[in-house]
Recover the amino acids of this structure.
């Protein structure tokens, strides 16, 4: 089985765990009534909040993770 076939047959949980310790993504959101950016682990769990996108990216990198775009 080639890599593309393995990825297509991964379970939802396996896919969510992929990169869990390596990447994080950011979404616009609200925390305690303040707009900003919610930082999420690869599995979708919220792990932080920042008032600006540059600050969110900086926080991700300070924790030895790579910020990624999600489309």
């Amino acid at each position: 089985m080639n890599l593309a076939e393995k990825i297509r047959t991964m379970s939802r949980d396996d896919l969510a765990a992929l990169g869990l310790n390596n990447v994080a993504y950011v979404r616009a959101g609200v925390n305690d009534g303040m707009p900003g950016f919610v930082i999420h682990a690869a599995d979708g769990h919220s792990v932080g909040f920042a008032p600006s996108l540059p600050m969110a990216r900086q926080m991700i990198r300070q924790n030895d993770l790579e910020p990624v775009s999600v489309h």
User: Anything to note?
Assistant: The chain has one domain: 3-67. The CA atoms of residues 12 and 43 lie 10 Å apart.
